[in-house]
Design goal:
- The complex is a heterodimer.
- Chain A is of the alpha/beta class.
- Chain A is built from 3 helices and 10 strands, in the order ααββββββαββββ.
- In chain A, the strands form 2 sheets. In chain A, strands 1, 4, 8, 9 and 10 form a 5-stranded mixed sheet that branches. In chain A, strands 3-2-5-6-7 form a 5-stranded mixed sheet, with no helix packed on it.
- In chain A, β8 and β9 form a beta hairpin.
- Chain A is globular.
- The N terminus of chain A is likely disordered.
- Chain B is mainly beta.
- Chain B has 2 domains: 179 residues, Methylamine Dehydrogenase, Chain H (7 Propeller); 76 residues, Thrombin, subunit H (Beta Barrel).
- Chain B has no helices and 24 strands.
- Chain B has a 4-stranded antiparallel sheet with strand order 1-24-23-22, with no helix packed on it.
- The relative contact order of chain B is 0.14.
- The model of chain B has no long low-confidence stretch (mean pLDDT 92).
- The chains are: A alpha/beta, B mainly beta.
- Chains A and B meet through loops of A and loops of B.
């Protein structure tokens, strides 16, 4: 599938270069090719990397339930897919996910709020947990990720929450405050669900580069 | 009798000088301060700009070996891939080896006392041991589940101690680079440790999970018994802990800018 995609892109590029593919509005082949390349780049940037941090723990369980019944904190669901830069599914990925508890503390004695998800053919993942808290040294709420997949570069990154008071309601202005968040792209919209058990949800797709 | 030396700036690294008569500290304001160990009075301040001054090495995370006249320099991990690199440099600054060392940043680095081996631990929790002369990876340890924050070789080079997030001191047999013993008892994460000059004791300093500002313990360990001999209170995270050359004292730098001095016997 990926080889087929590669050929398709290469052929497409060659067609533009040779004038075999033209735009609906007058465009030079150079401009058309640049437009094509720009569109390709925009659609295929890998997820930006972030720091691993000191509290990664190896050996977390493969579970979609990261919290225990009765744990304090607002329920949170995190969903996403693991894709390559062409948008294809990547089956067989391992997604380590970990975060602090509602008070901003990591469990360093056990595996509370930690999992290593073995991603199947669907390349989708979903976990139920609680909103991570803030802690003094790194005050923006975040979820850590470490993703490995056959044939792809390992990615270390983090997801942030657009609702975080740390951003003071102005993401564009404050996302890079104190150098805490490396990329605006890592901050995700938070959906609130009131029916059933009220909970928040974020979507965090992971896009990996080929090795 | 326990006492305290105060610093104007947070002390991150400690080293005894002049056979124990002076104590030097690499500080967070990029200055090295040197105190008279007995009186606690400040004798000298060395700024980072005095680059040729040997004490400025206390201001970085470099590891040194005088035997090969080499330094090991951990580089910031690659921004996109997270890969770590450890550079082994000659005294001239010429690169001898560029070693790949896991992902996420290097948390500990050091040379064995004979200068033949360099070790680095990474935030991906792996430890790596390399032959310094040819850069060959001797062993990669993937058994640890947490990051190590502190390390020290025994003076005879037979043991390496590492400790970190899981509060356990791991003693490695350097003939095999395998774990020979584990010491449990520190009530917090461990951020500092050192061997006594006779190799029979160990000092460890804590780092509370709550924050760097919470009180912790400084423990003095009897290695033969595998148990703490003494416990001292520290007001905040211990950033560095060392034995005096005569083995009679331990000095431990804390996040409140103090250096605690305790008897080690």
């Amino acid at each position: 599938m990926q080889d087929h995609e590669l050929r398709r892109r290469d052929i497409l590029g060659e067609c533009i270069a040779k004038g075999l593919l033209i735009a609906g509005v007058p465009m030079t082949s150079v401009n058309l090719f640049a437009f094509y390349q720009k569109a390709e780049q925009a659609a295929s940037q890998p997820t930006p990397a972030e720091v691993l941090g000191p509290f990664y723990m190896k050996g977390a369980p493969n579970t979609s339930l990261l919290h225990k019944p009765g744990d304090p904190g607002f329920p949170l669901k995190v969903v996403g897919k693991v894709l390559n830069t062409r948008g294809d599914k990547i089956p067989g990925a391992l997604v380590d996910i970990w975060h602090a508890d509602h008070a901003g503390l990591y469990d360093v004695q056990g595996y509370r709020y930690r999992a290593q998800l073995a991603i199947g053919e669907s390349s989708e993942y979903s976990v139920e947990t609680i909103m991570p808290g803030h802690y003094p040294d790194r005050p923006a709420q975040h979820i850590h990720y470490l993703i490995t997949a056959p044939g792809h570069r390992t990615l270390v990154t983090q997801a942030y929450f657009a609702t975080d008071p740390y951003f003071e309601g102005n993401l564009e202005k404050n996302y890079s405050k104190r150098g805490i968040v490396s990329s605006r792209e890592l901050i995700r919209t938070v959906k609130l669900f009131e029916q059933g058990t009220p909970h928040a949800e974020i979507e965090f797709d992971i896009i990996l580069e080929k090795a | 009798m326990s006492r305290s030396i105060s610093s104007d700036s947070l002390v991150l690294t400690l080293k005894f000088l002049d056979g124990g008569r002076s104590l030097a500290g690499g500080c967070s304001d990029s200055k090295v301060r040197v105190w008279d160990f007995n009186s606690g009075s400040l004798k000298e301040t060395v700024a980072r700009e005095q680059a040729k001054h040997p004490l400025t090495s206390l201001l970085s995370r470099l590891a040194w070996t005088d035997l090969g006249n080499l330094q090991a320099t951990p580089k910031m991990p690659n921004r996109q891939t997270g890969e770590n690199f450890l550079h082994i440099l000659e005294a001239s600054g010429k690169e001898k080896h560029r070693l790949t060392a896991g992902i996420g940043g290097i948390s500990i680095v050091g040379f064995s006392p004979d200068g033949k081996t360099v070790v680095a631990g990474s935030y991906d929790t792996d430890l790596r041991f390399w032959n310094v002369s040819n850069g060959e990876l001797l062993r990669r340890v993937e058994d640890l589940t947490v990051s190590m924050f502190a390390m020290a070789f025994s003076p005879d080079g037979k043991w390496l101690a590492t400790a970190g997030v899981d509060r356990i001191v791991y003693l490695w047999d350097t003939s095999t680079w395998r774990i020979a013993k584990k010491l449990a008892g520190q009530p917090e994460m461990i951020s500092a440790l050192d061997f006594s000059p006779d190799g029979k004791r160990l000092v460890t300093g804590g780092f509370s999970e709550l924050t760097a500002g919470h009180p912790v313990k400084i423990l003095l360990w009897d290695l033969a018994a595998g148990k703490p001999m003494k416990s001292f209170d520290a007001p905040r995270q211990v950033t560095s802990a060392v034995f005096s050359p005569d083995g009679q004292w331990i000095a431990a730098a804390c996040r409140d800018k103090s250096i605690a001095v305790h008897p080690a016997a």
